[in-house]
Each structure stands twice: as C-alpha cells, then as structure tokens.
Amino acid sequence: xxxxxxxxxxxxxxxxxxxxxxxxxxxxxxxxxxxxxxxxxxxxxxxxxxxxxxxxxxxxxxxxxxxxxxxxxxxxxxxxxxxxxxxxxxxxxxxxxxxxxxxxxxxxxxxxxxxxxxxxxxxxxxxxxxxxxxxxxxxxxxxxxxxxxxxxxxxxxxxxxxxxxxxxxxxxxxxx
Length: 176
Description:
Layout: H1 8-16, E1 46-48, E2 53-55, E3 58-59, E4 63-66, E5 69-71, E6 74-81, E7 86-88, E8 91-98, E9 101-103, E10 106-113, E11 118-120, E12 123-130, E13 135-137, E14 140-142
Parallel strand pairs: 1-4, 2-5, 3-6, 4-6, 5-7, 6-8, 7-9, 8-10, 9-11, 10-12, 11-13, 12-14
C-alpha cells in the first residue's frame, strides 16, 4: 500500500554501483555533450562565445570556433570564424573557414572565405576558396608549406617588427 521513496544515501549507493542516477537539471541536453569515448576520443570545438572578448594570443591543439572577438594571434588545428566574429591578429591553422571579420594575415593549408567574410590581410595557403560576395583586401600567396613561415607567435615578426604576425607595421597596440 505504501512504498518508501529512496533517500539520498540510497541514490548515492546506486551511482557507486554503476546504475545511472539522473541529476536534476534545467532543460535536457540529451547527447549534445557526448563523452570522449562516444566521440572516438575526438574533442569537440572550443567555442569563443559572442559575449566574449579575448585580448591576447590563443593556442589550441584542436578545433576553435570564434563567435566573439579576439585581439591577438590564433594558432590551432582548425579554425572557424563565425559570421559575427572579429579577429584582429594573425591566424595559423591547418584549416581556416572565415565567415566574419579578420584583420591580419592567415596561414593555412586550406583556407575558405565564405560569402559573409571580410578579410584585410595576406593569405598564405595551399588551397584557397573565395565565395562570391566575400571581401578580401590583401595578397594571396600559394605555398607548399604555408604554416612554416608563421610558427613564431612571440617576439617581433621579421615582416612587421611589432610581434603580431597579422598586423601591419606600426600597429603594435590595439586601441579600445
């Protein structure tokens, strides 16, 4: 007639025994955040949200998705610059997809400037795709190893002398 509700200690012992205990959360994400083993040990992208401003260099071994603003150099495996994002500095990545604004040089094996892209700076690449409607002001340089020339993220660049691989000479400080 009456059933006893499990108390907190019973629920904790169930979790220790390997039985999943649902945690109280607002909303349900389902499999939106799968574990590393479910993804085959591949990490998801690191996301720089639209409300975030980073002043300084960013370095990652994986994929980075920028939706906010970065004032500094980016060095990663794969980079996606979102439609409302802004990057002021150099980019060094195996693959780069630009949908937003980049003020600085881009070095990548595969570089794609989508129709909403606005790029002011030189692009060093193995493969380059520019969609109709994209804005590109700078030089395009094909290279067998475009990543080799931009590995140096600290200290003055030989090209511009200000320590930022993507900014023209004389613009070493970013004004707010």
